[in-house]
Structures are given as structure tokens and as C-alpha cells.
Amino acid sequence: MTLPHTGRALADAAPVPYWLDRPDRPDPLPPLAGPHQADLLIVGGGYAGLWTALLAKEARPDRDVLLVEAGTCGWAASGRNGGFCAASLTHGLANGVDRFPGEIAELDRLGRENLDAIAATVARHGIDCDFVRSGELAVAVEPYQLAGLAADAELGRRYGHDVHLLDRDEVRAEVHSPTYLGGLWDRDRVALLDPARLAWGLRRAALDLGVRIHEHTRVTGLARDGGALRATTAGGPDAAPGAVRARQVALATNAFPPLLRRLRAWLVPVYDYALMTEPLTPAQRDAIGWANRQGLADTGNQFHYYRITADGRILFGGYDAVYHYGNRMAPSLEQRAATFTALADHFFTTFPQLAGLRFSHRWGGVIDTCTRFCAFFGTGYQGRLAYAAGFTGLGVGATRFGARVMLDLLGGEETPLTRLDLVRRKPLPFPPEPVRAAGIHLTRWSLARADAHEGRRNLWLRTLDRLGLGFDS
Ligand SMILES: Cc1cc2nc3c(=O)[nH]c(=O)nc-3n(C[C@H](O)[C@H](O)[C@H](O)COP(=O)(O)OP(=O)(O)OC[C@H]3O[C@@H](n4cnc5c(N)ncnc54)[C@H](O)[C@@H]3O)c2cc1C
Questions:
Q1: Distance between CA atoms of 19 and 362, rounded to whole angstroms?
Q2: What are the tens digits of pLDDT across the range 202-261?
Q3: Which among 313, 257, 301, 250 has a CA at the least distance from the CA of 145?
Q4: Ligand 1 binding pocket includes 256 (Cβ within 6 Å)
Q5: Closest-lying ligand 1 atom to the alpha carbon of residue 402
Q6: Among 222, 279, 445, 471, which residue carries the largest CB count within 10 Å?
Q7: Is the CB of 315 under 6 A from ligand 1?
């Protein structure tokens, strides 16, 4: 049911990501043209590529590093996400325990170390991205979800996490929503940040260390070239075609059509959507509490994530996760009226006291979903190329870890990271079309049904669970 004020609230929302719609967005760097050489070529200027560039230079300042980006750095998922920077490398502890029981303690420790290192880098390079370690509050909005929170609390405590179960009154005292029945506050394993400013800050830091970056430069093909690799780049209205001969290549292209064919079986692009409100007035802030500014998420299969920005807006996203036949991606798919209406309705159901508040921005973006919900890694061209992909909606923090893994893989020596099962094992592949689309739609339908029926999973979901297959955002 559409609430009466939903239409008005969305009427003036700009169809662009709030984070990228800023006057201080950096000017684009010139496209690459003609022949070039590099020790390390990085393809993709989202977090994964930018972290790879920065870490490569920090480790070996003499290494000649060149990064090419098809658009501008951070224009895609990295500049338009919710800004939840989680310690988890496994899309949550429970998923990690299920899939990597033998090494989850180590992965949990590495994830914590990774988040600490992100905080330290932000401070060291003076990256102005509103990085605040305010934690995450998971809320139950249906009675059956309370048992899930209790189980997660128990699991978190077993791994030494600073987690606190809140009953109905306690959670509503934190954040005033009539829908909350209980909560689980993880106090320090999630930071909130301004996603585009993190990307722009990493780009600035990489440039300062001498990384060469070319924007509006799409790599169209890779091939062997003697003892090196050769990447060809498309020309555009302002650029001639170019080529880079590089000793090594790091592929950080997320959900985009991969340059290594075999990656297609493991990845599907899934559209996720978000709304941003206008800044709240002091009276509206008082009406919702939320003084501790945690990141919030509800706990159905189709979940919402929401948070406050530095200038007092609320970002509200999630719920729908939309796949298009044949891995289709297109700018037009970043807008979806039905999803925005549903999100706005859910927002005012969560915070009825904010009726009358308007949304300033609405947008969507693509997530690189894989069947195990956390990144996978590998090499190609006899170890001259490394890739990291499949972050599945939780890549803000994990991409830095992915960058470390790619650099270790390119180093060619076994390291504590390359020995991990997480790094050596691949997810189960998605089937080819048309079974791929049919399977994803059946799974989404089943997940929505489970949400409507106290979390009960039907035969299809139970079969997928047994096979270790799934679909998430
Ligand atoms: C709406 C939304 C909300 C999200 N919320 C969160 C969140 O709160 N927390 C969280 O942890 N994660 C979240 N995510 C996921 C997170 O944003 C991603 O996991 C992360 O940004 C992935 O970084 P990346 O560098 O791998 O990919 P991207 O940022 O997508 O970067 C890949 C880059 O590669 C470039 N590229 C692709 N092909 C080529 C080519 N051939 N040549 C040159 N360049 C190429 C693209 O132009 C792109 O810029 C969200 C994602 C979306 C879409």
C-alpha cells in the first residue's frame, strides 16, 4: 500500500547519487592515448583498484603503477553505496562460519585488522570522508527475527565481538521507531563514511605517491605480449585509442563485463537502490533519537540499510535486489520507480513521525553478486594477472583486503593470505541463461515469501542452502 505522502516526498528527488552530486567532485584526469608502459597496470578505479594502486606504491615506491578507469574514479558502486564500512570479509560472521569453518577465526581477525588499517590510512593521508566508527544496530521488525538476533549475539560473543542485545524498550530508546521489537548493537566492527569522498581521497593519495591515473579510458582487450601483457584501450570523443604494455595487471572491474572470460560464470550484476532525504530539522532529529548514529539494518532476507549523514540527512536503501536477463547493465536501470516508492513507503512506516520530509536524491547501482556472498580471487596469464571480485554488497571495507590479496598473488610467493581457503577456493558458478535468470527470480520470490511467512524457507531455498548456493545483496 502506498502511503499518502510518499508521492509528494519523492516528487523532487534528483535521479543521481547524492554522494556524487557535489560541487567539489574532482575534475576528470586526461584519457590515455597512444602507447604506454608500466610495471603494474590496474584496470578499474573503484575502491579495489585505488587500494591496489595505493598499497602497491606504499610497499614499493619505485614501482611504476598506472591505473585506467572507464568513467571517473568512484563513479560506480564505490561512489554511490551506503557507506557502511564493515570489518567482515565474509558478508557477516554467520556466512563465514558456514563457508570457512576452519579459518573463520583468522578471517575475523584479518577483517578487524583491515578495518583498523582503513582508519589509519584515512588519518595518515588526511582523507576527509567523515569516517566514524559508530557501529551497526541490527533490528528485528518481526517477532521471528528476535531468535536470529539472539543467535548472532551468541556467535559474535564467541569471537570476542563487542555486541549487545537490546530489548524492545532499549532499542526504541536508541532509535525511536514503532516497528522495532529488539536489536543487536555491534559497537565497533562497522564504521560509517562518505563513500565518494573516500574514493576521491584514495585517488588523491595515489596521485600524490606517483600513481599515473587516466580516466575515461576503457580497456577493451588483454593479450600476451612477450613476457608481459598488453591492454588495448578504446578511444572516445576526446581520446585516440591507446595501449599499455605492463609486466603485471590487476583486474578490479567489479560487476562490469570481465576482461577474463572465465569470471562470467561466477558473477551476476545486481541492482541495489537508495534514497537520500533532505537534512532533518532539529525537531525532526529529536523525534527519532538516534544520538549514537549507528548504521541500521533490519534483518529480513529483503533488508533495508539506513544511516545518518554528516549534514543530518538519512540514507535509506536496500530491499529490492534486481537482476536483468543476460547480466544486462545500463544507465537506465539505475532508476526504478516501483522500488523508490516501496523504499519511501517503508521509510515512513519506520519513522511515521517524519511524515512531510522529502527525498532529495534517488539512485541505483550495481553489486557484483557471487553464490558465496564474499569475494573470490585468482590469477590468469601464468600469474601475470590477478583479480578480486564478488564482494556482493559488502565491499566498502573488504576491497582493501582484496587489493592486498591481488598484490600477494602477483608477488608469486605463497603468503599467509594466498594460503587461505577464502583465496584458493572459488564459489559455485551460476548456471548459464536462461536457467540463470529463472533461478534468480525463483530465489528472489522464495526469499520474499519467507519474509512474509516468519522466515520459513521453502524447498527451493533449503535445497540451495544444502548446495551452498544463494542470492544476496
Ligand atoms: C547502492 C549500493 C549500496 C551499497 N552499500 C554498501 C555498503 O553500505 N557497504 C558495503 O560494504 N558495500 C556496499 N555496496 C557495495 C560496494 O559499494 C562495492 O562492493 C564496492 O564499491 C566495490 O568496489 P569495486 O572497486 O570492486 O567496484 P566499482 O566501484 O564498481 O569499481 C569498478 C570500476 O571498474 C571500472 N571498469 C570496469 N570495466 C572497465 C574496463 N574494461 N576498463 C576500465 N575500467 C573499467 C568501472 O568503470 C568502475 O569504476 C553498495 C553498492 C551499491 C551499488
A1: 11
A2: 999 999 999 999 999 999 999 999 999 999 999 766 667 899 999 999 999 999 999 999
A3: 301
A4: yes
A5: 26
A6: 471
A7: no
Atom number, ligand 1, closest to the C-alpha of residue 85: 11
pLDDT at 300: 83
Q: Say what the pLDDT of residue 237 is.
A: 66
Closest CA to 82 of 407, 413, 281, 365: 365
pTM: 0.96
Amino acid at 368: D
3-state secondary structure of 347: helix
- With a cut of 80, say whether residue 141 has pLDDT above it: yes
CB 409 within 8 A of CB 386: yes
Q: In this structure, what are the phi and psi dihedrals at residue 280, rounded to the nearest 5 degrees?
A: -75, 150
- At residue 270, the 3 state secondary structure works out as strand
Burial environment of residue 59 by CB neighbours within 10 A (0 to 12, 13 to 18, 19 or more):
exposed
Cell readout for 218 is 576503457
Of 81, 130, 251, the residue with max ligand 1 atoms within 8 A of its CB, to mutate for a pocket test, comes to: 81
Q: How far is CA 338 from the centre of its chain?
A: 23
Q: Ligand 1, closest atom to CA 392?
A: 19
Taken in order 252, 258, 261, 267, the sign of the CA dihedral is positive
Q: Is the CB of 296 under 6 A from ligand 1?
A: no
Other Cβ atoms less than 10 A from the Cβ of 152: the count is 20
Q: Is omega for the bond preceding 195 within 30 degrees of 0, making it cis?
A: no
Helix axes 435-452, 459-467, angle to 10 degrees: 120
